[in-house]
Design goal:
The complex is a heterodimer. By secondary structure, chain A is of the alpha/beta class. In chain A, strand 5, helix 10 (about 250-260) and strand 6 form a beta-alpha-beta unit. Chain A has an eight-stranded mixed beta sheet, sandwiched between helices. Chain A contains twelve helices and eight strands. By secondary structure, chain B is α/β, with parallel strands linked by helices. Chain B has three domains: about 5-85, Up-down Bundle (Four Helix Bundle (Hemerythrin (Met), subunit A)); about 100-295, Rossmann fold (3-Layer(aba) Sandwich); about 300-430, Signal recognition particle, SRP54 subunit, M-domain (434 Repressor (Amino-terminal Domain), Orthogonal Bundle), CATH 1.10.260. Chain B is built from 19 helices and eight strands. Chain B has helices at about 5-10, 25-40, 45-60, 70-85, 110-125, 140-155, 165-180, 195-210, 225-240, 255-265, 285-295, 300-310, 310-320, 330-340, 345-350, 365-375, 380-385, 390-400, 405-435, and strands spanning about 100-105, 130-135, 155-160, 185-190, 215-220, 240-245, 270, 280. The longest helix of chain B is centred in the last third of the chain and has 31 residues, at about 405-435. The two termini of chain B are about 25 Å apart. The chains are: A alpha/beta, B alpha/beta. The complex binds guanosine-5'-triphosphate (2 copies) and magnesium ion (2 copies). One guanosine-5'-triphosphate sits at the interface of chains B and A.
């Protein structure tokens, strides 16, 4: 279904106006806007907008913020057609989402001068950390980078085995010390091995943990700290993985993981399902952390670089 | 992040005070607040709507007793309604039959495999002889994972490495169970999305082949609005018998429980509370209700607190919190009131703005004594002006109280955190309130 169609089906009624509008020159359009442009949005539109955003897990606070923004925008800029209003709405939501940070890996290319570039992957249980690492390994390798993975989830049953299978699939080396090993020492060894082997990128898997467990969060800080001993400044990227089906709890996840590990990138997984993952708008805005990747399946290829406009459009499609 | 419902209702009901009856007019604001609280707790938007409509019907025309505030009455109505909806009839797990077959289904990463292990342990504890079946042929190391868990709970695991057909594996497993005296068979399956036709067909085929006594739908308690779609589709395809809520050891409100219960009307049979194999619980509708509302055990505590809390003092305090001039004198007074009630830690949560800030502080009467003596060693000026507490003042206070300087620092820090927290709550309330009139949440 096309962009915004669900919410903007009223547009059809405006076909006539639109036809007329096309004949106007852009200058005339501007004058027309000043004279006849609307500076408010009808209630029905806002009701629909609210419902779509809230049912996409955007959350009430962020939804209110978006509504406020679009109302202010319209007051300022006025609009003639609903398609113009759509564009404004799209821009207002996009403005909430911080842009990709150039000092981090981008489009599976690595920033210059950081070798090995170290990525630590964190998140609550079952969100897709290990799978995302497998996909990343595949992408980096395809770009010609040498990749080393570190199996620092030594807790969850068969976690090391799972990462090793991803290593085999992607043809990438996995550093592991078996189950129940100290995760910080695995991370240490992995980064060290990456240095020795002159790898371009080293990705550390960590055990899923709920953010309200203080000891486990402290352990994570320790895992992070220990890497600096091998490569100053490592990990360069701390990637928090969020599951698109998660609701408002994602805020608390982001807050606690950021406090423990200075998260600087987000990945949103399982967007191939019916969940929209709208909560990342508020999360990304509040913590000024860009969404870097999205997961769209369980296969090696099912990882994409986040595109905010496509994401926004997906909120309005069904 | 979330303000709890009781303080929201307090605000919403400001306008009703002094009116004896709940009417259409005075209830609108309250209903909106309840809906917002539910949606913040991840209850589905539409379900929150229909739920509050029902609450409204129940509340309308009720007399507000002089002894309870309208806010408290509403909380009780909401709480009762939630409990009823979440609970309903509780059904025992169907494990009669030889072997009884239990099929586990759900989205990716929801906790099916972990739960399968826990369930095997639980059933074994009932004196039965379960068999775990590795029916996930897709996820890397899924079979290995179940094997490890089986070992931990000392239950045998049926696997067919290399066989990519879960229907065959399930059939073979049942044959194996019959031969080996396993009287309960638990089939773990791969995670699947409700929109994945092929995978949904696959699990429907497993069901058709083995005719399970019990199909359990496993869902992550952190799930948001989508819980409704997923539960509905799984229910349409599998007509499952019960729901398992996982990762309840987290701090999610778990509104998905209400959404799911409302759309499929199947009992929530288990709650998974951790990664370890013994972290399994039966479902308690009352706990879930207050969890969704974010109020701890407020309903019962309200009554006890009422007997002790001086209304006027509470009002004065609220004002101070609003104006952000809560000081050490106020803090000291609060401590005195709390001490009168006993069971301190439980009761802390009830004080607006305070509970959350000191939730993780280890509270016992001794630590109270120390805190008191530190505050008492401050000068009246210092108590009124917490910002004045510089290093030398703190040192003097520490000496005066006979406590270590680190303790003084800690208390001052905690106090500051608490003030910050109160301040941010105020901002949120103010901000929200200001924007409200534009909100279609008003209906
Ligand atoms: N459909 C879909 N499934 C995914 C996606 N990403 C991960 N998964 C699945 O989600 C499940 C959990 O993924 P894992 O990678 O094991 O998650 P994790 O965060 O490493 O889990 P723990 O280490 O146990 O905390 C697996 O079944 C994955 O195949 C995605 O983008 N789409
Ligand atoms: N904290 C906590 N973690 C849990 C709970 N239940 C499961 N987990 C964790 O959640 C993650 C996913 O659990 P699994 O049992 O592998 O989930 P699954 O549904 O079998 O996943 P797939 O087979 O990939 O679809 C693991 O890290 C588990 O340890 C729980 O109740 N609390
Ligand atoms: Mg993992
Ligand atoms: Mg599994």
């Amino acid at each position: 279904m096309g962009l915004f169609e669900k919410i903007f089906s009223r547009e059809k009624k405006e076909k006539l106006d639109q036809g007329l509008e096309k004949t106007k020159s852009s200058l005339l359009g501007k004058i027309g806007k000043a004279l006849a442009g609307k500076s408010s949005i009808d209630e029905g539109f806002l009701d629909d907008l609210e419902e779509i955003l809230v049912t996409s897990d955007v959350g009430i606070e962020t939804t209110l913020k978006i509504i406020e923004r679009i109302e202010n925008r319209v007051q300022r800029d006025k609009y003639l057609t609903e398609s113009e209003l759509n564009t404004m709405l799209r821009e207002e939501i996009a403005d909430l989402l911080p842009d990709q940070d150039d000092t981090l890996s981008r489009d599976f290319h690595l920033p210059n001068g950081t070798k090995p570039y170290v990525i630590m992957v964190v998140g609550v249980n079952g969100v897709g950390k290990t799978t995302t690492i497998g996909k990343l390994a595949h992408q980096f390798k395809a770009k010609g980078h040498k990749v080393v993975l570190g199996a620092a989830d030594t807790f969850r049953a068969a976690a090391v085995e799972q990462l090793k299978i991803w290593g085999q699939r992607t043809g990438v080396e996995v550093v592991e010390k078996g189950m129940n090993a100290d995760p910080a020492s695995v991370a240490f060894e992995a980064v060290k091995a990456a240095c020795e082997k002159e790898a371009d990128v080293c990705i550390i898997d960590t055990a899923g943990r709920l953010h309200n467990k203080v000891n486990l969060m402290n352990e994570l800080s320790k895992i992070k700290r220990v890497m600096q001993k091998v490569v100053p400044g490592a990990p360069h990227e701390v990637l928090l993985v969020l599951d698109a089906s998660t609701g408002q709890n994602a805020f608390e996840q982001a807050r606690q993981f950021t406090a423990a590990t200075e998260v600087n990138a987000l990945a949103l997984t399982k967007l191939d399902g019916t969940a929209k993952g709208g909560v990342v708008i508020g999360v990304s805005e509040q913590f000024k952390t860009p969404v870097r990747y999205i997961g769209v399946g369980e296969g090696m290829e099912d990882l994409q670089v986040f595109n905010k406009y496509e994401f926004i459009d997906s909120l309005f499609s069904n | 992040m979330f303000e709890n419902l009781s303080s929201r209702l307090e605000r919403a009901f400001k306008s009703i005070k002094g009116q004896g009856k709940i009417t259409e007019l005075n209830i609108a604001e309250t209903i909106k607040e309840i809906r917002k609280a539910l949606v913040d707790a991840d209850v589905n938007y539409k379900i929150a709507k229909s739920f509050t409509d029902r609450v409204k019907d129940k509340a309308m025309g009720q007399n507000v007793l002089t002894s309870v505030s309208p806010g408290q009455l509403m909380i009780k109505i909401v709480n009762d309604e939630l409990k009823e909806l979440l609970g309903g009839t509780t059904e025992e797990l169907q494990i009669q039959g030889n072997p009884a077959i239990i099929l586990i289904a759900g989205l990716q990463g929801s906790g099916k495999t972990t739960f399968s292990g826990k369930l095997a342990r639980h059933i074994k504890g009932k004196g039965r002889n379960p068999l775990l079946v590795a029916g996930d042929v897709y996820r890397p190391a899924a079979i290995e994972q179940l094997k490890v868990l089986g070992e931990q709970v000392e239950v045998s695991v049926y696997t067919e490495e290399g066989n990519k057909n879960p229907v065959e594996i399930a059939n073979n497993a049942i044959r194996y169970a019959k031969q080996n005296g396993n009287n309960v068979v638990i089939i773990d399956t791969a995670g699947r999305l409700s929109v994945d036709e092929e995978m949904m067909n696959e699990i429907a085929r497993v069901k058709a082949a083995v005719k399970p006594q019990e199909i359990l739908f496993v869902v992550d308690a952190m799930t948001g609005q989508d819980a409704v779609n997923t539960a509905q589709v799984f229910n349409e395809r599998l007509d499952f018998n019960g729901v398992v809520l996982t990762k309840m050891d987290g701090d999610t409100r778990g509104g998905a429980a209400l959404s799911i219960k409302s759309v499929v009307n199947k009992p929530i049979k288990f709650v998974s509370m951790g990664e370890k194999m013994d972290a399994l619980d039966v479902f308690h509708p009352d706990r879930m209700a207050s969890r969704i509302l974010g109020m701890g055990d407020i309903v019962s505590l309200v009554e006890r607190a009422q007997q002790v809390f001086d209304e006027e003092e509470a009002d004065r305090l609220q004002k101070k919190i609003r104006g952000n001039d809560f000081d050490f004198d106020d803090f000291f007074k609060q401590l005195q009131q709390i001490k009168k009630m006993g069971n301190i830690k439980d009761l802390m949560g009830m004080i607006p703005g305070v509970g959350k800030a000191i939730k993780d502080v280890d509270i016992n009467d001794d630590s109270f004594k120390n805190v008191e003596s530190i505050i008492q060693s401050m000068t009246p000026f210092e108590r009124k002006n917490p910002d004045s507490l510089n290093g030398s003042r703190k040192k003097r206070i520490a000496t005066g109280a006979g406590r270590d300087i680190t303790e003084v620092n800690k208390l001052v820090k905690q106090f500051e955190d608490m003030r910050k927290m109160m301040k941010s709550m105020n901002k949120m309330q103010g901000g929200m309130g200001g924007r409200m009139p534009k909100m279609p949440f008003r209906r």
